[in-house]
Amino acid sequence: MSAVSADGSTESPFPRVVGFLGVGTINAAVITGLCSGPSSPERLVLSPRGAARVAALKASFPGRVEVAASNQEVLDKSEWVVVAVLPSQAPDVLGDLVFRPSHFVVSLMAGVSNRDLGKLMAPVPSANIVRAVPLPPVKDREGVTLVHPRHPRVMAMFDLLGIAVGVDEEGKMAKMQTVTAMMGAYYAMLRTFHEWLVGGGVGPADAST
Ligand SMILES: NC(=O)c1ccc[n+]([C@@H]2O[C@H](COP(=O)([O-])OP(=O)(O)OC[C@H]3O[C@@H](n4cnc5c(N)ncnc54)[C@H](OP(=O)(O)O)[C@@H]3O)[C@@H](O)[C@H]2O)c1
């Protein structure tokens, strides 16, 4: 399957196989968005932790999603790897793995710097490591995602899941990421307004506009 680019031509930003290390809330949203859209990798290889979640993704997208027996198998089978374990888990999880210099890594982990990622994923060159901060609406392909550095194929990937916002400096990325963390409070506030309006007799559709 292919993406439709601005000039009307079709091309996919993905290699054939993309691995996902740490299939929690955000990677599950990314996987769902990719598999439900017009373009996705041919094969998505998932790490086995979070058995119920990975089984549900495999059942939802049969033939495309595969569950690996180990984290190393994810790396061995994939050209790109999207990493989303918790930042505190990164040294243990990544330190045990053997990366290839040809791997391309998209790290979704908040606050783990490019420099630390380079050390944890050696011998992957720094040019092959991109950080991204997607928000959960990527599940419905309506999420905004920060991307640093502004890598064209990673930008294209997250444009398929909503809108990618390229950030040219790591310091700016940290600041912008902090603001994305306010998303939960923002949606909670909107829900409170909605409930208050509906409780006051306004129809749910009108209350949502
Ligand atoms: N949630 C968001 O909106 C969001 C947005 C942008 C970026 N992020 C970043 O994405 C990362 C993950 O966040 P999250 O909210 O998705 O967290 P999460 O739901 O807690 O997911 C973390 C996943 O990592 C798995 N895991 C733990 N140890 C592992 C190991 N040794 N090997 C493989 N998988 C392992 C966990 O499996 P178990 O369940 O079995 O422990 C869990 O499925 C964080 O670094 C966060 O900063 C999150």
Write a compact overview of the structure shown.
With about 210 residues, the chain is of the alpha/beta class.
Provide structural commentary.
This protein is 40% helix and 20% strand. By secondary structure, it is of the alpha/beta class. It has two domains: 166 residues, Rossmann fold (3-Layer(aba) Sandwich), CATH 3.40.50.720; 39 residues. It has an eight-stranded mixed beta sheet, sandwiched between helices. Strands 1-2 form a two-stranded antiparallel ribbon. The longest helix is centred in the C-terminal third of the chain and has 17 residues. It is globular, with a radius of gyration of 18 Å. It starts with a strand and ends with a helix. The N terminus is likely disordered. InterPro entries: NAD(P)-bd_dom_sf, P5C_Rdtase_cat_N. Belongs to the pyrroline-5-carboxylate reductase family. This is Pyrroline-5-carboxylate reductase catalytic N-terminal domain-containing protein. It comes from Rhizochromulina marina. One of its GO terms (biological process) is L-proline biosynthetic process.
CATH class of the largest domain: Alpha Beta
Chain-averaged pLDDT? 93
Give me the CATH superfamily of the largest domain: NAD(P)-binding Rossmann-like Domain
- The shape, in one word, is globular
Structural class: alpha/beta
Strand content: 15-25%
> Helicity, in percent?
25-40%
Q: Are any ligands bound, and if so which?
A: NADP nicotinamide-adenine-dinucleotide phosphate
Count of distinct strands: 10
Helix and strand string, N-terminal first? EEEHEHEHEHEHEEHEHHH
- Note the main sheet: 8 strands, mixed
